[in-house]
Amino acid sequence: MLHSGVYKIQNRVNGKCYIGRSKDIEFRWSNHLDQLRKGNHGNLGLQVDWDKYGEENFIFETIEEVVEESLIDREQFWLDKLSGQDLYNILEEADGSDFSDKVKLGLCNRPSHYRKHNQIHSAFKNVLTGEIILPMMDLAKTCKEHNLNYRDMHSLEKRRIYCSRDGWRVLDPSEFELYLMSLAYETTLKSQFGL
Over the stretch 56-65, which tens digit does the pLDDT of each residue have? Predict the structure, then answer.
C-alpha cells in the first residue's frame, strides 16, 4: 500500500535534517538510501555527512501522512516550521520555484543538482589558474565555450575522479561560499568607493 506524506531524514549526531515529500514514502526512502550508499546523492551536504557519520547515525521517519493533493502545502508547512533549525534542504520553497533565481543571484548555500525539470551542474575551479566556472544549466555547452573535455568534467561532477588532467575539480561548497562573499564584498567596494 502506498503511503504519501512528508518525511524527514535526520542526522543523530548533529541534529541536522532533510525534509521531503513523496506519493510513496517507502519507495522514496529506498531511493534516498540507494543514492547515499552509492555516494551520489543529489544533496551534497547530506551525502558528506552520511559518509562522515555513517548510515547508522541517520533516522528516516514519516512526519505526516498526507493525501497526494496536499503534499506541497504540507511540505511547505514543515519547511517553515523547522526553518530555524539546521536543514540539509537547499530550497526554502517546497515547489522548487525559488531555485533558479537563487542560483542566478548566487544565494544557494552550495552548488547543487536539482533534478525535477532542470539540472544545475556543479561549479568548477582550475587548481592551476584559479579560474572558476559557476553552476550552469548545460554542461556540454559550457565545456564547448571554455574548451573543456566533457567526459572529464562529467566524471568530476559524478565524483569518479578528483581532478581532471588539465587541473579542473569540483568547487568545494565552503570555497564556493567564500567566492560568492568575495564577489559581494568587491561589488560593495566598487559601489561605495568607486573602486
Answer: 999 999 999 9
User: CATH number for the domain including 13?
Assistant: 3.40.1440.10
Angle of CA points 168, 53, 170, to nearest 5°: 10
Within a domain: 99: no
The rounded radius of gyration (Å) of the Cα atoms in the chain is 19
Structural domain contains residue 98: no
pLDDT confidence of residue 95:
65
Report the C-alpha dihedral over residues 83, 85, 86, 92, rounded to 10 degrees.
-10
Q: Which domain holds residue 132?
A: 112-173
Residues 125 and 26: their CA atoms lie apart, in Å, by: 38
Contact (CB, 8 A) for 153 and 124: yes
The total number of structural domains that make up the chain: 2
Answer yes or no: is 86 within a domain.
no
Q: Which amino acid is at 24?
A: D
What is the number of other CB atoms lying within 10 angstroms of the CB of residue 120?
20
Query: What is the average pLDDT across 151-165?
Result: 77
In sequence order, the 6+-apart residues with CB closer than 8 A to the CB of 98 are 91, 92
Measure CA 134 to chain center. 14
Residue type, 102: K
Task: Give me the residue label for grid cell 551525502.
Answer: 47
Clarify whether residues 12 and 73 are in a common domain: yes
